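Onboarding guide, step 5: your first structure request.
Type a short instruction followed by the sequence, for example:

Predict the 3D structure of this protein.
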Amino acid sequence: MKITIKAFASVKDLCGFSEREFELPEHATADDAVRRVERECAGGSAGIESLLLAVNEEYCRGDRVLAENDILALFPPVSGG
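The system replies with structure tokens like these:
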């Protein structure tokens, strides 16, 4: 199945793309997609395990099963005061 992954802020810098299509097996999860990005990350993977995830503009956990044409957004952890 094809999904689109959008990377934001420092994740975009780390991964080297802001939006990219990926081919994943049926029943892949958001965590599976993150691991796929991690393998292809030119800048390394430091901090990629603590990302915030959203599928189709709705925050989710890594065990969310993806479907054809889903959009998975990757955000760095938010901090501040």
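Each response can be followed by summary notes, for example: The chain has a mean pLDDT of 89.
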